[in-house]
Amino acid sequence: MDETVMANEQNPQTPTAQGYVVLPDGRTVPTVDTWFNQQANNPQGFGAEQQRTQLSQGYRNYVAEPVTNALGDFISTNPISKVAEATGLLSPETNKAISHGIASVTVPQNLTQAGVMAGVLAGGLGAAAAPAGFGPALRVMGGTAGGAAGGYAETGTTRGALTGSGQGLVQAGIGESAGTIWNYARGIGPERVRSQMHDLHASEVAKVIKTNPRLKGAFANVEPTQAGLEDLVKGYVTNPVTKRATAKGQALLSAQMEQADQQIGAAIQQQAQNGVNVRFPLVTEKTPGQWGTWADARTQLSDLGAIAGAAKPHMTYTIGGQTMNGAEVKQLYASSLRGFQQQLNRVGPEALTAFNDARATYETGQYYLKMIEEGFKRKGAQVEFNSGNVQKALSKTQRSRAEGVNRLGEQEYWRFSEAAGVPRETPGTVDIYKPGGFLYNTTRSVPGLGGVAPYVARPNLVNPAPLALSQAQRTGVNVMGSQMSAPVAQYLANQTQGIPGLGR
To answer: Residue 501 to residues 3, 67, 127, 164: CA-CA distances in angstroms?
Structure first.
């Protein structure tokens, strides 16, 4: 520290002395800052470095130590620690020592460490709004700047600031490296990644079908898991009256249709009471042009729709005593549907809306069930949702995509596709879990390491983002990694104290 020339009040011959001023009457008196320093238990003045020492000590006494002790006590008294004590794995003394050791590593123990942590957090906040790829640099820069600020606050010297910036660079760099390694590790190992992606896709698919407005809540209770989807397409419900089992997904859709039928039936009955008797075409009767009740006609229309949906153009079918090919069956269903809608419009707009909504619900639900069933087509006894099968079914041909858009609507089709792992930008791609690339090939070429090669290389995923750490997670890993490396960084920083030329 530079020496400060002090004036002698008895012999004020140094009117320009630092910290003093000369009054008009010739007296030399201290400035306000110097006076306050003189009052701080040091008649010779409380120097800047000593002030910084007191600031740093105050942080340790009133922040670091109380928080560290509180955290250490919390860790030592949690159920896991107490079970370890009760079973004899840890003595109470060892438990307390370990717990407070963990706490001392977690909590910044000085202003420099606190500055580094604050800088990393600030860099993480900036990374959330910055373009992709800028996050690591911002966090490391934040830690470096925070270390410099903390070092200056602790020492009040340029050397302290430089030392703190170096410590921040080391800590943030180690933390960022830890985040990078963990981020990579989350995406290696084909079978583990496959399982993760299937779990993720199953959850996202379930969320999409639960919230599709066309379904009117038909699948609202599906659990967002592989087991939930499997229960939807392979589970069953038993009719309490007939004691017959029905596929669960089909039963849920039928329940929605039944509600619409009841609403339409009530509207038809109301019209009949008003003297308007609405009849509907019996589309599968031998005599064309016959009309019947809503219940009879609705059943026949459903039967015809099932045949039309599966009809092949080159095959022949017998409908109402008439033989027709697949294209003619589809035309008959379309014309019959228009006749139904015309009659329902006579009943009232509410009846027509209920009918159209029920049809949309049924078609949408059937499409989802078909796609999810594709996901469970897997050889072997193990039941697992294979999102790769869904990806292929969704995007294997232009026709399959067009069918999905027609059934779901464009917006909901792409929501479903993206949930299954097919991004809008690359709709024709699928996940490939067999690893490859430089690291895989290099590891395989090393004698004795061929067996571990699949577990150090990444599969080729359509969208690896789901397995990557978010910016918030990366920041959290950086903070913890940098704080755990603080003792090492502190040691390295201390070694720079003797470097000449840094100055104050």
So the answer is: 17, 37, 35, 16
